[in-house]
Amino acid sequence: MDSSETRAWLAVPGCAIVVANRDGVVQWASPSCRKVIGHDAATLLGADAWHVLVAPGDIPHVAAAHRALDEGDVVAGLRYLRPDGTRAWYRVFAGIREGSLFAAVRREYEAETATWYHRAATASDLPGPV
């Protein structure tokens, strides 16, 4: 990911950036991760994003979004696991940049939108890129 794209995403209010390798190991996280998703950037470094950020019941939904990255960039509603064990819905833009998974995580969804995504995930009718 070039520095101009990084700067552009960092300038988006309420946006956290997480960069992980294809195995899900976090290589870089923006300081705004603390405010947006509740995780300190320093504690995310080297962590397995699949175990730190994704609740076990949400892995199929996140895995489907992850597989879609082979087709191009993805925008999806995903639940992130907070450090206290609670989950919250976020809009996530993800793409592959220079061989790494780049995810820009934005604000929590309202309950109505979260309910729609939850129904879609449990019905295996996962939403595609928007």
Query: What is the C-level CATH assignment?
Result: Alpha Beta
Tell me the span between the first and last alpha carbons. 22 Å
CATH topology: Beta-Lactamase
The helix content, as a percent range, equals 25-40%
Low-pLDDT regions: 122-130
| Whole-number tally of structural domains | 1
What's the gist of this structure?
By secondary structure, the protein is of the alpha+beta class. The protein has helices spanning about 5-10, 35, 40-45, 50, 60-70, 110-120; strands at about 15-20, 25-30, 75-80, 85-95, 100-110.
List keywords for this structure.
single chain, 130 residues, alpha+beta, Beta-Lactamase, five-stranded antiparallel beta sheet, 5 strands, disordered C terminus
Describe it.
With 130 residues, the protein is of the alpha+beta class. The chain has a single domain (3-122), classed as Beta-Lactamase. It contains six helices and five strands, in the order H-E-E-H-H-H-H-E-E-E-H. It has helices spanning 3-10, 33-37, 41-44, 49-52, 59-68, 111-122, and strands spanning 16-20, 26-29, 74-81, 87-97, 100-108. The protein has a five-stranded antiparallel beta sheet with strand order 2-1-5-4-3. A hairpin with a 2-residue loop joins strand 4 and strand 5 (100-108). The chain is globular and about 35 Å long. Residues 122-130 have low confidence and may be disordered.
